[in-house]
């Protein structure tokens, strides 16, 4: 991951986790393509990285909520294949489905699901052909914890985790690596849009974005398909994932309803 001739594309790069990925990879000598909705902030970051690290940085102003925005970024990936794709762009609204507009719910699905799907699909053929490359998809702990007011967001992030794990099985023989990154509570602007009041959360619960990114990149080197930087005992995660597989196995081995029915 430290080779200076490698390239990466990062979505949602103008702040938070995406910005932290951009800074970490620029310091490692990666050529970067960074994308976000906010063009001015994107340009300021690009100028700073060029000056500080002397790396090539290309900006794409695109809103992944729109088909045109997703297609613009996907075409860039197909034209100039990258060594590393980081699908970080995403947002969540923590509100009940019944009182949230359909447009707002659709927007979460467009960015969190279709954005990840379309850009991953654009990147994989060249990676598989080269037998090298990696995709990091930023998910959420809420993927494993569907609760009231988080229905659509947690559903989209469950997609990200399951999609990433399944694609890993499809491409692992080629040498391409996949990672679903599970942040905990991170000190970013994401929470402002979601309606979370960070002032009410204990400071020691909040992870710094740079620490999260460092753990993610190390997890990629270690081969962690589901990376949970805040989890001390990885055996807990392994056990949880095995239990999911065991449940699926029981479904396909019994052709009759359970006795309680």
Question: What can you see in these coordinates?
Answer:
The protein is α/β, with parallel strands linked by helices and 261 residues long. The protein has a single domain (7-233), classed as Rossmann fold, CATH 3.40.50.720. Helix content is 49%, strand content 13%. The chain has helices at 16-27, 39-53, 67-79, 102-130, 151-171, 190-194, 209-222, 234-252; strands spanning 7-10, 31-36, 57-61, 84-87, 134-138, 177-181, 185-186, 206-207, 226-227. The strands form two sheets. The protein has a seven-stranded parallel sheet, sandwiched between helices. α1 (16-27) runs parallel beside α2 (39-53), α1 crosses α7 (209-222) and α3 runs parallel beside α4. The longest helix has 29 residues, at 102-130. It is globular and about 70 Å long. The protein starts with 6 loop residues before the first strand and ends in a 9-residue tail after the last helix. The mean pLDDT is 91.
Secondary-structure map:
Elements: E1 7-10, H1 16-27, E2 31-36, H2 39-53, E3 57-61, H3 67-79, E4 84-87, H4 102-130, E5 134-138, H5 151-171, E6 177-181, E7 185-186, H6 190-194, E8 206-207, H7 209-222, E9 226-227, H8 234-252
Parallel strand pairs: 1-2, 1-4, 2-3, 4-5, 5-6, 6-9, 7-8
Helix pairs in contact: 1-2, 1-7, 3-4, 4-5
């Amino acid at each position: 991951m430290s080779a200076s001739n490698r390239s990466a594309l990062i979505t949602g790069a103008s702040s938070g986790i995406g910005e932290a990925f951009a800074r970490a990879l620029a310091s490692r000598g990666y050529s970067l393509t960074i994308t976000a909705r906010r063009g001015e902030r994107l340009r300021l970051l690009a100028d700073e990285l060029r000056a500080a690290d002397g790396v090539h940085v290309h900006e794409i102003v695109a809103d992944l909520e729109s088909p045109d925005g997703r297609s613009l970024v996907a075409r860039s990936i197909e034209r100039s294949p990258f060594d590393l794709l980081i699908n970080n762009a995403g947002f969540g609204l923590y509100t009940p489905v019944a009182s949230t507009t359909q447009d707002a719910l659709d927007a979460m699905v467009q960015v969190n699901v279709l954005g990840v799907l379309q850009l991953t699909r654009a990147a994989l053929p060249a990676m598989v052909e080269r037998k090298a490359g990696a995709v990091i998809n930023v998910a959420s702990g809420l993927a494993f914890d569907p609760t009231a007011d988080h229905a659509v967001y947690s559903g989209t992030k469950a997609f990200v985790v399951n999609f990433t794990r399944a694609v890993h099985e499809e491409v692992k023989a080629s040498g391409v690596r996949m990672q679903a990154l599970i942040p905990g509570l991170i000190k970013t602007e994401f929470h402002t849009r979601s309606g979370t009041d960070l002032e009410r959360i204990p400071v020691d619960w909040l992870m710094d974005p740079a620490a999260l990114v460092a753990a993610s990149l190390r997890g990629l080197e270690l081969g962690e398909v589901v990376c949970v930087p805040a989890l001390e005992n990885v055996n807990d995660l392994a056990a949880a994932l095995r239990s999911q597989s065991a449940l699926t196995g029981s479904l396909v081995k019994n052709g009759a309803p359970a006795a309680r029915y």
